[in-house]
Amino acid sequence: MLNALHNDPLGKLILRLAVGGLMLFHGVSKLLNPGSIDWIGGLLQGYGLPAVLAYGVLIGELLAPIMAIVGWQTRLAGLLMAGNMLVAFLLVHTGQVFMLNDNGGWELELQGLFFFGALALIFLGGGRMAVRPD
């Protein structure tokens, strides 16, 4: 019974589907609501950066999750998603680092799970159950 639980390829597949699939919802939302990209562009301009960089969120929240889900260039996909989460943290969430939500959890638990899940994909790769195993 316990040997059946030793399945690294299945664990990597579940991680890819979870991180990529859940991050993809955020990207689709931004694609369907272009005002959110304009809002991100405004934040970037506030830091003296060009607003056009806001379109990079589509790489980190659409392209990279699709890459992770299918298992093509999974390590790169993880890097893009982790980078996306770092930028989101720096632009929007720095004031929430030491805050708890109404349920007693960390205010940034979703962002943390995305970031650390993406980091895990960088180090683990896609596994055997990927379009392009590494």
UniProtKB/TrEMBL annotation:
Q: Where are the transmembrane segments?
A: 13-32, 52-72, 79-100, 112-131
Subcellular localization:
Cell membrane
Q: Which UniProt keywords apply?
A: Cell membrane, Membrane, Transmembrane, Transmembrane helix
Tell me if Transmembrane helix is a UniProt keyword of this record. yes
**Chief place where the protein resides:** membrane
Record carries keyword Cell membrane: yes
Its placement in the membrane is given as: Multi-pass membrane protein
Which PANTHER family does UniProt cross-reference here? INNER MEMBRANE PROTEIN YPHA-RELATED (PTHR33452:SF1), OXIDOREDUCTASE CATD-RELATED (PTHR33452)
Report the sequence similarity comment from the record: Belongs to the DoxX family.
What name does UniProt use for this protein? DoxX family protein
